[in-house]
Give the backbone structure.
Amino acid sequence: MSKYKVRIFLPFIALLGFCSCNHTESNVKTVLNEVLTYNSNNFQDDYGTHNAWIEIFNKSYGSVDIAGYQLKVSSQPGDTIAYYIPKGDIQTIIKPRQHVLFWADGKPSRGTFHTSCVLDTLKNNWVGLYDSGHKLIDEVVVPVLGKDISYARVRDAAKEWEIKGTDDKHYVTPNTNNLTIERNEKVDKFQEKDESGIGMSITAMTVVFTGLLTLYILFRCVGKIAVGLSQRAKDKSNQKFVEELNMKKEEKENKSVCGCNDEVYAAIAMALHESMGAVHDVEKQVLTIRRTSSPWSTKWNALRVIPQRK
Amino acid sequence: MGEFLSFLGNNLSDFWTYTGFANATSGHLIMILIGLGFIYLAIAKEFEPMLLIPIGFGILIGNIPFNMEAGLKVGIYEEGSVLNILYQGVTSGWYPPLIFLGIGAMTDFSALISNPKLLLIGAAAQFGIFGAYMIALAMGFNPSQAGAIGIIGGADGPTAIFLSSKLAPNLMGAIAVSAYSYMALVPVIQPPIMRLLTTHKERIMRMPPPRKVSHTEKVIFPIIGLLLTAFLVPSGLPLLGMLFFGNLLKESGVTRRLAETARGPLIDTITILLGVTVGASTQASEFLTFDSIKIFALGALSFVIATASGVIFVKLFNFILPKHKRINPLIGNAGVSAVPDSARISQVVGLEYDPTNYLLMHAMGPNVAGVIGSAVAAGILLGFLM
């Protein structure tokens, strides 16, 4: 690889390396979202029984297949139970911004969503979610909870966790949004505080003007630079032209066009005069050049001969 | 024999229930008349025929009455029907960015680059959007609906469809038809406002010729334009990204085939599909409502406000500009992004008062700035109201 190419590619590789070093949890698409350890009268599973459950949320805007992921649960060091989410079940594909519930009932034979894990109702429980590359992507320590009380993120995929099910405002939300959005807050805010729309108009026009004004300033500068550069190039070419002209003038003054002085011209003129004045033979015939055929000029030889099977 | 005849009779009466004649309502007939009106305007008056013929014919297609309960899967709102599949480009919002790709590939930003202050006229004309937004709020629409209606003032059909599909999908048909109708009526709406707001002296004002723009500047423009506007308003990315991408294809000089496809077969294909499906979406039952009438009234108002604000802005701007750099207010109308119609109007009106004063090149500056401005405005509305 040439030095030039290396010079181009090295910064790209360095940039890529820098970006990969900056790898954060923003790449993680699925998170643990809510856990209920003591299910007395809460959500029932498909067998009609009440069991502890763990909710996983796909926070991205694309579908995610969690087949091959692992759920691990531990209530004290050394007793970790792992559940491998089986492959081949189409239901393990979580749609964008959707939830899926896993039952911590210790009965994996009941189906994909029934795990081998069991949560301890009397101790803190550590729950971890691992991706198919066995990399921990999310974990939470669930405190000891009462009956039908869950430990959940304040809203889906939020960083803060809270205890839910203690009052009417904070209710348990299995398989659904942790915070029910009943209205469009942005629109409501505009409806409340900007009934006439003047606020929106001023804000939006300010942004439009700011954007286009910045573009104007940038292109004014770019234009000035471009004009300056073209002017400089023009000046340079003018200067070069003038220099060349001066040089030619100087040369003309010192020498003639072919670099010979006048004495040489005089000698040539005299030689020509002598030659033209001398006696020459006069030929009777007209001399012509006859065209002859050769392998280089014949049309036949220039054509490609199609090979024929014999 | 009698039984057979009654069997035939029953068959024919069944068949009759499926025909358009049996299912026609006055609404269908009104919409068919509107569709025919569009086609007439396009052919006889040559008002935006590229848009009005597909939309007009689409209105005819969308308003052929049929038995909705028969499950024929022919209507545009019936999931799985051919028209419904084609309509997904509108509802999902992927036709407008493709149109913008073509617009970018056919737009020459030289006039704007040589005189970048014209960008500000494109910004000023966006007041039409927000003026209509305020009036729509006063008329009882909620902020999301008002935003979708206001964008008609941007005079940009694809942007109007893109925004209304996100903010007010139920009003999209009326908004799209209104936006395209008024774009076609630019030659009727704008000149009286321009004449009203300018003096004879202003109309004959001459502007210095634009300087020659280098290839490098033309290449830099879409790159800086995208980075700046999209960083400022990321919600406008689908439109701005495609607009500047198309322009880079054109200006780079090394992707001639791609640029030709974008500004030729691609934009033509999408225009046909967009026009027909938008027209077909105006089914009488969905379209003939009091809201549609209000939207049409607001659309006209927003065009008037946009034109007036562009012209008035130039007049005010001239106060701070040195005499030799003043701008002819007749190009203020071109701030609305109906490319190149509104720029052509500046030229036509200008020539009426001075047959040697050619304003087209100057008017193209604010005109293309209007395209950028309306996409930015749409991004802002989307960011605030989505």
Observations:
- Chain B touches chain A through 46 residues (CB under 8 Å).
- Residues 90-385 of chain B form one domain.
